[in-house]
């Protein structure tokens, strides 16, 4: 178990709900911010956000939903990993520093798990973060017991995405986090209905996300974008994954077709797709309630449940000291999930 000396610095994150304590963990590729929330004796849930986001701007909507928060915090200690330089108060990373690849980011996650003394973990990622965690699960199979992926990607960038990313990369490099870059990113994250238009004002979550983007160092976002734009195709290895996977994707996400393609490459006995209608890529923010019931059924396969009203804080039946090899076997993980769609009323929000 790591402490706040030597390779880590602990900082209390005051004034921000559900953030826990931030640790700066030294890795071979620089420091990485990890916000730890919950009882560290419980199983670990590792999160990784999408491009230009951190855990608050990518997962706040989900964790602000009381039902989802109680389900996840009852059963897990949350380890929110931010991409390099994306955390609150981050410094600008010099453009002269060596560039990193997605494989370097994957190895950073392994170093974080080693620092905290973690074994097999549950993983939750959004788009670019989903790619990083999927690649992690393929490289470190024994360290992942489940994947919860939101609007994931698995192929190398198509020409359209590559071109968009190159335009955004050049704008970030020469002009910083300008209005055009923010517009491209918001289209990546949210559906048109949430982004608003001439006669419809943009929603509160879009305004909050825009403020968050203003806080990012453009050089740090540029480095992460360059790594994601140079990602390899990992689809051929998806059928070898030894963990269960739950995939959410918004109907209006620009990555909808790729999420469907990724689902087709996974072992259908141990994977499920939830396509959320009238939603963009970031289901965690736009329609977090659509995730609740599928998450509950998914976690039931691991013997995990939401706390009852009469007993709000029992210890999870799945703690690191009682995980058996049989439980980690896909054939013993419970329910067989089937592809489903959800329709959530537009007026429901956290």
Any overview of this molecule?
- This protein is α/β, with parallel strands linked by helices.
- The protein has 13 helices and 10 strands.
- It has helices at residues 55-63, 66-75, 102-116, 128-139, 159-175, 179-189, 192-195, 204-214, 218-229, 256-265, 283-286, 292-300, 325-328; strands spanning 8-12, 21-27, 30-37, 44-48, 77-81, 121-126, 144-150, 244-250, 271-276, 340-342.
- Strands 1-2-3-5-4-6-7-8-9-10 form a 10-stranded mixed β-sheet, with helices on both faces.
- The longest helix is centred in the middle third of the chain and has 17 residues, at 159-175.
- The relative contact order is 0.15.
- Residues 1-17, 309-340 and 342-350 have low confidence and may be disordered.
List the topology elements.
Blueprint: E1 8-12, E2 21-27, E3 30-37, E4 44-48, H1 55-63, H2 66-75, E5 77-81, H3 102-116, E6 121-126, H4 128-139, E7 144-150, H5 159-175, H6 179-189, H7 192-195, H8 204-214, H9 218-229, E8 244-250, H10 256-265, E9 271-276, H11 283-286, H12 292-300, H13 325-328, E10 340-342
Parallel strand pairs: 4-5, 4-6, 6-7, 7-8, 8-9, 9-10
Antiparallel strand pairs: 1-2, 2-3, 3-5
Helix pairs in contact: 3-4, 5-9
Helix content: 25-40%
Report the uncertain regions.
1-17, 309-340, 342-350
Order of helices and strands: EEEEHHEHEHEHHHHHEHEHHHE
What is the CA–CA distance across the termini?
35 Å
Radius of gyration: 19 Å
Largest sheet at a glance?
10 strands, mixed
Number of helices: 13
The computed structural class is alpha/beta
Q: Going across the major beta sheet, what is the strand order? A: 1-2-3-5-4-6-7-8-9-10
Determine the strand fraction and express it as a percent band.
15-25%
Question: What does the overall shape look like?
Answer: globular
Whole-number average pLDDT? Answer: 85
Total number of strands: 10
